[in-house]
Structures are given as C-alpha cells and as structure tokens.
From TrEMBL:
SMART domains: AIRC (SM01001). This is PurE domain-containing protein. Residues 118-250 form the PurE domain. It comes from the Bacteria. It comes from Pyramidobacter piscolens W5455. Pfam families: AIRC. InterPro entries: P2CMN_synthase_LarB, PurE_dom.
Amino acid sequence: MKTSIKKLLEDVRDGAVPVEQALLALKEAPFEDIGFAKVDLHRPVRQGAAEVIYGAGKTPPQIVAILGIMARHGQKNVIITRLSPEAAREVNAAFPIEYRAEARLGIAGGFPEPDGIGRIVVATGGTSDIPVAEEAALTAQMLGNDVLRLYDVGVAGLHRTLSHLDDLMSASVIVAVAGMEGALASVVGGLADCPVVAVPTSVGYGASFGGISALLSMLNSCASGVTVVNIDNGFGAGYFASMVNHMEVKK
C-alpha cells in the first residue's frame, strides 16, 4: 500500500487525479470494526506490509470475515499463521487460500515478485527444525523476498555448513533456525558479514527445556550481528529478515 499511496500522490502532482478524489481515498478509516476484531487497514502505510492474521484461537468464520475485509480494501497478499488443517479446510471452502501444512501457514493471494535488495538464506540445524524454518521462509517470500533454503546443515556435521559458504556469504540476511544447544547461529554469525536472525526451536531432549537452552545460547552468542526472536517464532524471524532486506537509504 505504500507504493499505491505514493502513486496516488504522484498522480495528484501530475494532474491525473483531482485533489478531492485523492483526499477521499486518504480519508478511509484506518481500521474497520467488525465486532470481534478491528482490522488494521493502514498497517501497509505504516509498516510496508498488510496485517497478518494469527490463526490460533480464531474460528474459521472469523478468519474468513477478516480476509473479506482485507480483500475489499485491496490487500491481496495475506498471511495466516498457526492455522490448523481442519480450520484451513473450512476457510478455503469460503475464501480461496493455499495451505502449507508443515509451516501451518495459510496464504491468500499468492506470492508477490521479489523486490528486496538481496537474498534471504534460511538455514536449519536439523531436519526437525524445518517446520519453524518453513514458517520463516514462506513469510519472507510472502513479503516479497528471494529465499534460499539450506536445511540440515547443523554443527554436528560442520562440513555441511562449510559446503554452503558462498551462499551464506552472499546473503543479505540469514535466518538460523536450531534447537538442541542452538550453536548454528554463532557459527553462521562468525562466517557471514550480514545480519543473522537466530530462531531457537523447541526441538531437543529434556535439558533443552522446550527451547530455552537454545534461546539462552543464542542470546549469549559471541558472534556479532546476531539478533534473537522467541522460541519457534519463524514468522517473527521471516518478517524481521524481510524488513532488513527492504531497507533503503533514507534521505
């Protein structure tokens, strides 16, 4: 929507759109109150991306209603996170979505063309981390990024990580997803010259404490340039990586 607002203002400047018409377009309510939700319609203007629907705890009719409001206001590409397969089937019957079961992610409107400044690499320590990594990768793709997946490249077999040095060193952002002791983020952070977003997962045995061990390891990383999101928060990592990959020089 940032682009559409900019185009509207340019059209006013060029005389293609009357001032009154542009003023009417800008006067639209910043949100729409539908009782159980207040749908944020101006989030693309403020943050550059539409509101994301958190699917857990919402009924399929509620999700469909929110999707309808967003579609009516021109928000074509919408992400629904933490969506169960059963809810996805009900939503899809009323409003077409693509469902990615591994990431528990619903996608409305398809993927936009990548327009970021570079490539986001999403790497996992092991295969068990892939569901969280897929949430991150798909979120980044939905926000207009070129994404490369490097799965099962953890430190238990460091040669697997080192075999992808070119990919890691050419990335604009790296999302490192790992459970157990969470060492992947530090290794990657020590190799790459770009920001690293570390995602601890709840994968691991008893003393991993459901991801707390990996979280603390990542927070205590001695590698510079590593930031950490919450346990299993692939969405947050993908969103943050997209923001970094869309940074422009502000004059």
